[in-house]
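Throughout our pipeline, every protein is held as a single compact record rather than as scattered files. Such a record has a labelled line for the sequence and another for the backbone structure tokens. This encoding replaces a full spatial description with a residue-level series of whole-number codes. For reference, a complete record is included directly beneath this paragraph.
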Amino acid sequence: MKLWPPKAGRIYRGSIVKSENTPSGPRAIAVASGKGGVGKTSLSVNLALCMAKMGLNVTLLDADLGLANAEVMLGLVPRFSLYEVLYGDKTIEEITVQGPFGINVISGGSGCLEMANLDHNRRQWLLKMFDRFNCRDDVLIIDNGAGINKNVLGFLAAAGEVIIVVTPDPTSLTDAYALIKVLANYKVHSEVYLVVNRASGKQEAIHTLNKIQTVAGRFLEIKINNLGWIPEDRVVAQAIRKQQPFFITSPSSTASRSVAGMAELLTGVAPSPAVSGGFWGKLMGLFG
């Protein structure tokens, strides 16, 4: 499987397998990690921008409720977030803001402890508002919180595809395996994509991938697909400090080329079959 993509500046329109925008809703891709700080939000943001650049209509949902920071990486300052949907009188449409390349961004709110620990009534209200939300975009990228909790598992289960982000660090590997184990044991998904971030080189990326695939293959009934790897690249940290995604500031960097390769791979394969009611409907069924 390809580990190193071509230059990001190339357009892949000819290879795009565009998801049908059926009544079931957009193609839902959830990005998750077992451990925080491994680059999950950075991948979500830059993957969303890359897909938008390729001609797809993309919504980025920051589902790290109460600790959302995707808008920070995009240099956006949304006036409202899901907090105002839950505790105010706003709708999802009213809090959605437009980011670079026309992507739609839904903020999960920041600094709100009650958002991270929703009670039954608030969760039901949020689901009702999601159900009313008519997302007409081609792709929905869900940036989840790190770790394993009911919110994270609900979003992962409702999504058609799941990307797990991991670094070569042993703690990251251990936590990523724990998350994959839960998805396998509860039969949430039969396969997931894996992205190795901050690898020192191709060999370390392959070694990290092999570790996860070997252990999962021995003990779990889940397929680990290689989506690609992102090398340690100083432009990533610089972009975060500038609150400008590296796919915009450094489109020819190795990190941008890696993300472009992942977008190419994702858009070149048919999305998972739509579930009845789509992402929002399935989320209602899981959380309801």
